[in-house]
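Q: Please design a sequence for this.
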């Protein structure tokens, strides 16, 4: 009959066993490593239960075991986070830029468009986002924070310091303090969401406000464009009306897009801009 092992021998044995097991199971396949770590954590917990049942257990040994267990649980959660992130990013596609910046004639993807496109994907992978703010060390800046949490137990903190958006593209103050903070937070949420899940759009800019608009969205010189044919205008006008009334496009967006290909007369522009979507009627009255 074998001699009964002391608690200290059990602790040393499980430490050696776990290290050996991890080395043997180490693999480029992260999923395999997560499974291995799960088994290791379960093994450590079973030893903790065994040691705790011994009336002669040493408190120091118990602490060592608990620390080992916590490290393995944390490592397991971190690995599960990485596996889920890879899976989510594989499934996330570039987001279409549907919003128009009237000041720069450039398009961009709104926060709600990005969220609508990717939240079903990242939530299915077990992720959730929690945004907040903090003091920035930079004068005139606001720190926007995001905790990216995973159901496996791992949380990663992201943060971004942004200048408070109190002025328009011309540099003139055009917002109250509350509006400026709200706008900055909205920018931060959008940028952080894109950064965390590596979301791309056709224009990874900032609504065209970082400087000169990209060359591809600048309208060519008017004299180099042919006039928009009146008969084609009459033919396409019902389609534009339907798009504006359904909320797919704004009248301003259509005017800008048409202006990239042909020269519109003032009458043609005014005819399109006169179309008001139902959601805009309250503002126009």
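A: Design:
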């Amino acid at each position: 009959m074998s001699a009964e092992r002391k608690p200290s021998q059990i602790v040393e044995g499980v430490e050696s066993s776990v290290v050996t097991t991890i080395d043997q199971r180490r693999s480029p396949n992260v999923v395999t490593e997560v499974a291995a770590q799960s088994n290791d954590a379960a093994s450590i917990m079973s030893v903790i239960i065994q040691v705790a049942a011994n009336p002669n257990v040493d408190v120091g040994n118990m602490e060592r075991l608990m620390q080992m267990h916590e490290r393995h649980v944390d490592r397991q959660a971190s690995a599960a986070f990485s596996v889920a992130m890879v899976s989510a990013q594989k499934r996330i596609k570039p987001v279409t830029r549907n919003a128009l910046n009237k000041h720069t004639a450039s398009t961009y993807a709104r926060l709600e468009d990005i969220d609508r496109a990717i939240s079903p994907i990242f939530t299915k992978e077990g992720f959730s986002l929690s945004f907040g703010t903090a003091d920035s060390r930079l004068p005139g800046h606001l720190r926007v924070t995001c905790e990216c949490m995973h159901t496996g137990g791992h949380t990663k903190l992201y943060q971004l310091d942004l200048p408070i958006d109190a002025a328009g593209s011309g540099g003139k103050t055009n917002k109250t303090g509350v509006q400026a903070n709200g706008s900055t937070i909205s920018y931060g949420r959008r940028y952080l969401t894109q950064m965390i899940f590596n979301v791309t759009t056709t224009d990874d800019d900032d609504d065209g406000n970082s400087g000169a608009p990209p060359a591809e969205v600048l309208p060519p010189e008017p004299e180099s464009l042919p006039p928009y044919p009146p008969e084609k205008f009459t033919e396409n006008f019902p389609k534009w009306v339907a798009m504006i009334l359904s909320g797919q496009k704004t009248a301003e967006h259509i005017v800008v897009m048409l202006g990239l290909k042909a020269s519109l007369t003032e009458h043609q522009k005014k005819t399109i801009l006169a179309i008001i979507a139902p959601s805009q009627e309250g503002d126009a009255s």
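Q: Thanks. Anything notable?
A: Residues 14-35, 204-222, 281-285 have pLDDT under 50 and may be disordered. The radius of gyration is 29 Å.
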